[in-house]
Amino acid sequence: MDVSVKLEQVTKKYGKKCAIHSLSVDFEKGKVYGVLGTNGSGKSTLLKLITGLVFPTTGEVRILGENTGRKSISNVSYLTELDMFYDNSSVEEVVKFMGSQFSDFDLSKANLLVDELSLDRKAIMKQLSKGNRGRLKLVVTLARKSPIILLDEPLSGLDPLVRESVITSLVKYVDFDHQTMIIATHELDEIETLVDEVLLMNEGNLIEKATVESVQELGLSLNQWVKQTIRGKLA
Ligand SMILES: Nc1ncnc2c1ncn2[C@@H]1O[C@H](COP(=O)(O)OP(=O)(O)OP(=O)(O)O)[C@@H](O)[C@H]1O
Fold first, then answer.
1. Distance 44 CA to ligand 1 centre (A)
2. Which of 51, 158, 214, 231 has the fewest CB atoms within 10 Å around its CB?
3. Which atom of ligand 1 is nearest to the CA of 38?
């Protein structure tokens, strides 16, 4: 088993609030993981711990075998919930700028993704719809050759047709021989065909981890499985 990301007994507190409670989990190279759970269950915090945007209160995060400690992490490509583009930049300027920031940025892949996701290169950020800004975030995240790709709510604000093309792009442009992808999302139906394994979070605890295959063998959709598992654990 080739582990890309390893969390060992990680607890993350924000002041008195415990967002992640003693979490130990491995993410294997080449797999796609879905991090699922109700609002406030700790999904974004888990991704931020892997990016090094927040540090564990106790425990360890290991990326490709190395304890990240309090170092900044360069080998993780991260799509955040936040919008980080300058209002007056065009799509092509944003792509060029991101290319200048990351040595692992693949400009030709970015250009292919711009076309695939039907973005206008000349369009200016402040004139782009939320959905188009979402697509651009995805372009610049997927264009990196980082071994670890983290996507926080990549489908939010996108209409059903665009969601479909985003899923297609994820399958087409991610190199599953070298990259591991972790997606935090509430869009269970859309990701069902994409992910290999799901982690179900509740109030900072990992309450279940399962392969999508095993969920399907139960005759359940991911949606049904999540509801059933949460109900069962809370009963
Ligand atoms: N910077 C912060 N300061 C204080 N509390 C925080 C901070 N960030 C998150 N929290 C709290 O930690 C808990 C986990 O938050 P987190 O954003 O990780 O959940 P989430 O599962 O991603 O939620 P959502 O589905 O709503 O995006 C929540 O109770 C949240 O209010």
1. 7
2. 231
3. 25
- Specify the number of domains making up the chain: 1
Predicted ipTM > 0.95: yes
Kindly give the number of the ligand 1 atom that is closest to the alpha carbon of 184. Answer: 22
Instruction: Report phi then psi at 156, rounded to 5.
Output: -70, 135
pLDDT along the chain (235 residues), means of 10: 94 97 97 96 96 94 84 83 85 95 94 94 93 92 95 90 87 91 94 95 96 96 94 79
Range of the domain at 171: 3-234
pTM confidence score: 0.95
Written as six digits, the tokens of 103 are 């040595």
> Exposed, middle or buried, 196 (CB in 10 Å: 0-12/13-18/19+)?
middle
68 lines ligand 1 (CB under 6 A): no
Our answer on whether the CB atom of 42 is closer than 6 Å to any ligand 1 atom is: yes
Q: Which of 21, 43, 205, 230 to mutate to test the pocket of ligand 1 (most atoms within 8 A of CB)?
A: 43
Return the residue whose CA atom lies nearest to atom 28 of ligand 1.
40
Q: What's the DSSP call for residue 174?
A: S
Report the CATH number that the domain containing residue 49 is assigned in CATH. Answer: 3.40.50.300
**Do 40 and 52 contact (CB within 8 A), yes or no?**
no
pLDDT for 72 equals: 63
Q: What is the pLDDT at residue 194?
A: 93
Residue pair 182/150 in contact (Cβ under 8 Å)? The answer is: yes
Q: Give the span between the Cα atoms of 32 and 24, in whole angstroms.
A: 18
